[in-house]
């Protein structure tokens, strides 16, 4: 997600998107490396990471080599980023179902929930300021 939004920021030449997503991508890389280092089963984790890198390379090729027009590229990449971000926001629904079923919030990280809410609200307001529907979503 961070790398997709970083690409979108580079296309738009939006330094806010570039700075935030560069830091986010660096932190996510650190998290992945720490997970890989401490994971008892390294092979499956490494294979999944390599598969995701292949998907990333394929996406990069699609957006840079197959779409020549910059405006079309920006629109398609913006749509991809929005859909990907929405899917990331929907992923905790499984935890929500578990919370309702067990009537326990043990699997819910309240600080993460609040931080995600505040970050999402901030990006929505930023997108509204720029009149950018992809960032707003």
Structure description:
Its main location: membrane. It comes from Thalassarche chlororhynchos. This protein is mainly alpha-helical. It has one domain. 85% of the residues lie in helices and 0% in strands. Helix 1 runs antiparallel to helix 4 and helix 2 runs antiparallel to helix 3. The longest helix has 25 residues. The relative contact order is 0.10. The model has no long low-confidence stretch (mean pLDDT 89).
Compact summary:
Belongs to the SWEET sugar transporter family. It is a multi-pass membrane protein. The protein has 137 residues and is mainly alpha-helical.
The secondary-structure element order is: HHHHHHH
Low-confidence spans: none
Number of helices: 7
Could you tell me the mean pLDDT? 89
Kindly give the count of domains. 1
Helix content: over 70%
Q: Could you tell me the number of beta strands? A: 0
SSE inventory with pairings:
Blueprint: H1 2-12, H2 15-38, H3 42-66, H4 70-90, H5 93-102, H6 110-130, H7 133-136
Features:
137 residues, mainly alpha, 7 helices, 0% strand
């Amino acid at each position: 997600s961070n790398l997709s939004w970083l690409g979108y920021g580079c296309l738009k030449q939006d330094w806010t998107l570039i700075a935030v997503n560069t830091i986010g991508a660096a932190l996510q890389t650190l998290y992945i490396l720490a997970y890989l280092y401490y994971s008892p089963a390294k092979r499956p984790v490494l294979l999944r990471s390599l598969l995701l890198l292949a998907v990333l390379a394929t996406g990069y090729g699609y957006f840079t080599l197959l779409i020549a027009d910059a405006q079309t590229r920006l629109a398609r990449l913006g749509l991809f980023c929005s859909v990907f971000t929405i899917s990331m926001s929907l992923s905790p629904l499984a935890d929500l179902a578990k919370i309702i079923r067990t009537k326990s919030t043990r699997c819910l990280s309240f600080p993460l929930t609040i931080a995600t809410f505040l970050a999402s609200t901030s990006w929505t307001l930023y997108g509204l300021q720029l009149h950018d529907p992809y960032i707003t979503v």
